[in-house]
């Protein structure tokens, strides 16, 4: 078992300095570069804190006691103010509470803090992690090697960890197919990218696949990357809908209901009738979608249930420790309303 002395020799500092860094002792300042070298050595040499080492020794006689704490990696903005993610959060929180677990909200900034990462992940202050925000591959690899991890939503659908999501590409395909069955051939798209690139986003892929399968032309100037911003969706929609009738789409598929609601406002301001002049369809089934005028046709996504299944999947891994990555796709539903 690796000891502080070996870390000190590896870095070329005193044992006291190593101990001070690992314990986050504020009584003396340690050079930031030295801190980085110490934490790097901790990771490379596989240092295990004394408390956890004692638990390993005792594990042969009794089962390691769980902390009954789960970390949720997401910004507070997503958990509290974004209606899509707040429903997922509610499903997670209520399911964990019913099972006697508590939820600890952490951010990417917390994971970048070596002291916090060591305390929360390496020292196993939490039994598992639910991931919403994207974390870099190196950090993800270290986390999943230490404790159970489940990814929720699109950021982790292609990683070798358990994930809970819905089939975004197929949902987008069905949304476009619905517009086509209503007689639309000139269809625009408003969505957002992964980083700055939209071509890899699965709802955009579903849009393209449907248009190609039905042999319909994709007009580049009707493809809008709003960066998931309602204001950008509104401004872009106003621009393309200001064109003459022959030069504008007859329908727009929006990759989120809030984007669709913003674009519909632009259509109203231009005096266009929805759906006879321009039709709209979204994805989410945001609560506001049924109350705007006209009510928004959308693909309903089971957000609360995604949270429930994610929490149950993680608890199962904590309690049973299955060595497999489970990929769970929940069903979605087309809700036809007045906007199409």
UniProtKB/TrEMBL annotation:
Cell membrane recorded as keyword: no
Which Pfam families does the UniProt entry name for this protein? LacI (PF00356), Peripla_BP_3 (PF13377)
Q: What PROSITE patterns is this protein classified in?
A: HTH_LACI_1, HTH_LACI_2
* CDD domains, sorted: HTH_LacI, PBP1_LacI_sugar_binding-like
Q: Any idea which GO molecular function terms this record carries?
A: DNA-binding transcription factor activity; transcription cis-regulatory region binding
Gene3D superfamilies tied to this protein: 3.40.50.2300, lambda repressor-like DNA-binding domains
| Keywords from the named record | DNA-binding, Repressor, Transcription, Transcription regulation
Q: Which residues form the HTH lacI-type domain?
A: 2-58
| Domain of life from the UniProt record | Bacteria
- Has UniProt tagged this entry with the keyword Zinc-finger? no
The protein in question is named HTH lacI-type domain-containing protein
